[in-house]
Amino acid sequence: MAARAEPSTPIILLVEDDVAAQGALSKALERSGYSVCSASTTSAARTALTRLRPGVVILSLSVRDELALQFAARLKARTDLRIIVCSARHAGIPEELRGQTSVAEWLSRPFDLDELEERLAFQLREPTAA
Description:
Layout lengths: L10 E5 L3 H13 L3 E5 L2 H10 L4 E4 L8 H11 L3 E6 L7 H6 L4 E4 L4 H13 L5
Parallel strand pairs: 1-2, 1-3, 3-4, 4-5
């Protein structure tokens, strides 16, 4: 689904392979004033990125067509996009490895929507790297 936004409406690219979670999170973020483009695979996310310029990418570690952290690293090598990982699985990733990734934020599931919105707002306010 392609996001259409007013110029001041932040666009979020949600990469989530769980259809129910994707739908619920998309609706919640849209109610909060974000424009959301959803992708269930990293391949679909790459296609979406040819059409839009999101402010933040929310990435689930469970996407199956490519390792999510490899996708994040490739994305950060080409862009200055902010990436927030939302996953129950990242707790098993050692802190030092998490620190070496190109991910701006790590959010454990289950998470509070208010916490996600705070992190989104922070990432959207932060200046991008030159």
